[in-house]
């Protein structure tokens, strides 16, 4: 199977140099900063240590047809935009480009991958009440802060980053829980079956 669609770089160059439709189909596009055309999502990592062209090619963005290929949409750059995975999954598949334009104009901005990971870490910390307890104790005991950070680091080594999308919240929660167990000397694994929803194990 050959992929007849143009490269991401070719798509970006088309939209960056084609004022007609740029504001409508690629409102977030700035050729220097790879991002989702519809929501502006990006990762700091894409640009590190490589050319702009390479950064666009390595960016976790998908080539999305404006008019779907299945109903005759062209594989040429004027019919293809670059979207992040959630935008691509939710964008309209419709014969009239007007629907895509309207959808893009209403699409909320998405923060960077790094900001999303940070927000997810905070959620994960909040899911482990014992960790919040440890945080409170930190101020009182000399060296406890370093011990918690070291335990989190060791715990992190057990995690696998899934497909480059960053750590999932469930993985982060496991990391935090294991670090708490190490620092507090308690059992890491609670006995099964686990209580459902809302209940926490002491
Ligand atoms: Zn997006």
Please count the beta strands (DSSP E, at least 2 residues each): 2
Number of helices: 10
Pick out the low-confidence regions: none
β-strand percent reads: under 5%
Report helical residue fraction.
Answer: 40-55%
H-E order: HHHHEEHHHHHH
Brief digest:
This protein is mainly alpha-helical. The chain is built from 10 helices and 2 strands, in the order H-H-H-H-E-E-H-H-H-H-H-H.
Description:
- By secondary structure, this protein is mainly α.
- It has ten helices and two strands.
- It has helices at 8-16, 19-25, 44-47, 52-58, 85-90, 97-106, 113-127, 129-138, 144-156, 169-184; strands at 62-65, 80-83.
- Strands 1-2 form a two-stranded antiparallel ribbon.
- Helix 7 crosses helix 10 and helix 9 packs across helix 10 (169-184).
- The longest helix has 16 residues, at 169-184.
- The chain is elongated and about 65 Å long.
- The N and C termini lie far apart (55 Å).
- 24% of the residues are buried.
- The protein binds zinc ion.
- Residues 36, 38-39, 41, 83-84, 87, 110 line the site of zinc ion.
- Zinc ion is lined by residues 36, 38-39, 41, 83-84, 87, 110.
